[in-house]
Amino acid sequence: MKFAYRFSNLLGAVYRQGNLNFSQDGNAVISPVGNRVSVFDLKNNTSETLPVSTTKNITCVGLSPDRHLAIVVDEDGAALLVSLITRAVLHHFHFHKPVNSIRFSPDGRKFVVTKENVALMYHAPGKQREFNAFVLDKSYYGPYDETTCIDWTDDSKCFVVGSKDMSTWVFGAERWANLIYYSLGGHKDVIVGCFFEKDSLDLYTVSQDGTLCVWESDTELDGLVLMKSRDKPKPSRPAEEEEERLEGEEGEVIRGKAEAPKEKNTKNVRYKQRSKHFFNKEGDFNNLTAAAYHKPTHILVTGFASGIFHLHELPEFNLIHSLSISDQRISSVAINSSGDWIGFGCSGMGQLLVWEWQSESYVFKQQGHFNNMASLAYSPDGQYIATGGDDGKVKVWNSNSGLCFVTFTEHTSSITNVTFTSSGFVIVSASLDGTVRAFDLHRYRNFRTFTSPRPAQFSSLAVDKSGELVSAGAQDSFEIFLWSMQTGRLLEVLGGHEGPVSCLCFSPVQSILASASWDRTVRLWDMLDSWQVKETLSLTSDGLSVTYRPDGQELAVATLNGEICFWNPHTATQTGSVAGRHDLEMGRKETDKITAKQSAKGKSFTSLCYSADGESILAGGQSKFVCIYNIKEQMLMKKFEISCNLSFDAMEEFLDRRKMTEFGSLALVDEGAGDGEGVNISLPGVRKGDMSSRHFKPEIRVSSLRFSPTGRSWAATTTEGLLVYSLDGSMVFDPYDLDLDVTPASIRKQLRLQEWVSAIVLAFRLNEKALKQEVLETVPHEQIPVICGSLPDIYVEKLLGFVAASLEKSGHLQFYMTWAQSLLMLHGQNLKNRSATFTCAPTEPWHPNSNQVHYCKWVCSVYRCDFNMYNIRYAVALSKQRGVKRAAEEDEGEEEEEEKDDDDGLSEEMSEASIEDAEMVL
User: Cα dist. 9→59, 143, 729 in Å?
Assistant: First the structure.
């Protein structure tokens, strides 16, 4: 059993906080999700989570103009320089204070970071070889309060900064003689957005109270004059230098004042307010929370706290569109490069929407669980993952694309468990609202609702292998309820447990139900013998989780004392145990009075799952670690740290003494403004705090674990989201992308050196058909299996497609069949797992007016060989003609002509018969 599982994708969450960005072509959205970054491909309908993470939740992301580099900054100001091509971290940096916004210049040479009331301009990394990737160029002081937004002119000569002190500051990126800084007022609330007009110094500023100010400049961009060396200001006093360089950063300091700079030899840049507009004249909207401006089309998009957004055409302020897309606050707005798609992020509900405003339709609409996820289940084929959350929703995710395609909202309380039936088309869920519901994935509806005679809160769920029996355990009445899936009737109520039923599991080979309870027993119920108790297994502590091995020959039970016990269900004997309490390594919560080492003594595993081969078991609980144990050796094989996000509670083993005061930990101080009566401290043993409190820090934990039926991946529902770990790590970076010497001469040189793999890769990079055929046919046939095993994954599909096309036209059938056989034998499993990305099949119901009519016509034409019909007729006629010539050489005279006429008639009959046979196929 291999344990080289790597983080593959993050599901269940699409947006948390921060700013959205579009890719360079506008077909992908880059969204911060907690301390990770997800990329949603809108064209191919897929998602990908970058394999990088920060130490705390991400607040802002800045992308270079070519979208090759990204600067990701978290809540504390720690920044990562990430390559979006290689998905690798290139540099670490710390700004020492929370960063409000970050923006690259259009030419990509510099970027501006705003923190507190300072704007810092750095040299952009990658433009020249430097030891330090972040080199400070200038520091700009002007606003008196925190800065909020940034925008650049198109030629990167100037930038503008908005502030919470209701002022907007225009700074020069260079030492311009007529523009060093300029302060603009006119607003009565916080500046939300400030935007330059295209190829101009004209400005638009938007404030939180719904006010738009249009500013007109008397100078064009070409009118900016560089300051001569003799006009440079004198160095500032040493005391000021010491004050401004406390962080050890070097760079020129530009300190602005509230008035415009004095005139010298050249005329200074002046601004005047051209017009002023108001969004909330009728009082329908409250706070304006986000804004974005598309310069080529002059479209301004504004989002409000009520979930409404506006589209205006500037500078006339003509209303184009107004719509309510949510009932939550719009946190971020972004526009793609073409100006057709608008991205919206709502942090309250975890929503990510992409709206095409011209057709007034959704391009992308996703929402994760805005509360904790409690359970997950894989479909029998591993293509779908169902999750249930504390928000009462059941969501179904595509494991290949990572997107949710259906959400069921019939439950009115938290979901405690979900599972698939053996057919894979029915999802059954249990909830604390006292119902168990069955959902049909064909029609996307709730077709069965199971209830108990007396109200009960169901905490566990299991469905037998046939899909006919549905069982659920109650946590208040200590009973197990059995229903029939066909009729929906209650069949039996199983009593006998003296404590809450924590987990249920059906045997995969027999009709036996195993139930674990807090009464320190596991009971095996025989479904074929009047639902009687077959065996009772005594435990050393309260039972929390129970699961069968895939072959049904072993039973694993997790108990409250942190142990995992293994039982033989046929003989009711214990075969082994694993003490996993010390492997949990719990962190210390900020409100704990005891150390993490002492609190770990009361922790245990709450979820178990066998691997597909049954040799190992996956265990997780109230910890940031997931453990894999080898059952035969009864030892820990590997531990996975599911998160390094310090924004969650119980992440660190020791508390920071710098946060300790006479009152206690600073975490107990409520920083929000309000009329509360004090600090809201959760009760001991509570898994989550009061959701209505102003400051809520969730505790990291793993609520459910499942192995994929294929055994190639496993998933865990955690506080961070649905994490998927996989063995199939697809190679997303092609090193030959950086090679400029890919020429036919270099490819033939590789052939002469017998570097077959390099020659094939270079040939597909050059993508010339004749060259690819030359390279493949040069390869010795005995080397084909070795070469296929050494090919990168991204070239397997390309080579397989080329081989398939060559089989139709080339005469080297055996040679290309060897290629196809080797590729499918070595990469068949990986191709099957990713089959949804490069295969298409009709999935919608039949409709006579749909495109499937054309699809089926195409299938029929292929099956009938319409494209090859005339070739077949020609080959038949040609073969008969050759037979006639042979007969003519042997015979003479009139007999030769008669045979020729007979053969012609026979050939016509055979050709007509072949056509009739082809038509009879349909």
Answer: 21, 41, 11
